[in-house]
Amino acid sequence: MYITVLGMHAIERKIDREMRSGVYTLLILKAISELGESYGYEIEKYIYEKSGGQIMIKDATVYPILRYLTKNKVLKSYWTEPGKGVPRKYYQLTDEGKEVFKNLLKRYRELEARVNKVLEGDE
What we know:
Arc Repressor Mutant, subunit A, 4 helices, globular, two-stranded antiparallel ribbon, 66% helix, 8% strand, mainly alpha
């Protein structure tokens, strides 16, 4: 069975999207951890700047992750008061969220080391 070039590109895009999904969640948690509390655009900007302009996460990705994390009590959120500029929804890590972030970061680093070991081989 042969895979067409177009089919191969679709497979690559799907796998790439899956790889990025968990990493983006981790980066969003890192941004909120560093910023203390933040809103969507500020989180996107933080990640973009910290990556040297290499990672740009779009609104369509950030906000569903923020909603999911809030729904599952990893984050808490609140709106700014009307009259203080444009109302913004701010996010903060909950105490449970701080623990979740710490554990995920540890597991990510362990996984990264194991994956690199396999990918680099016995050089």
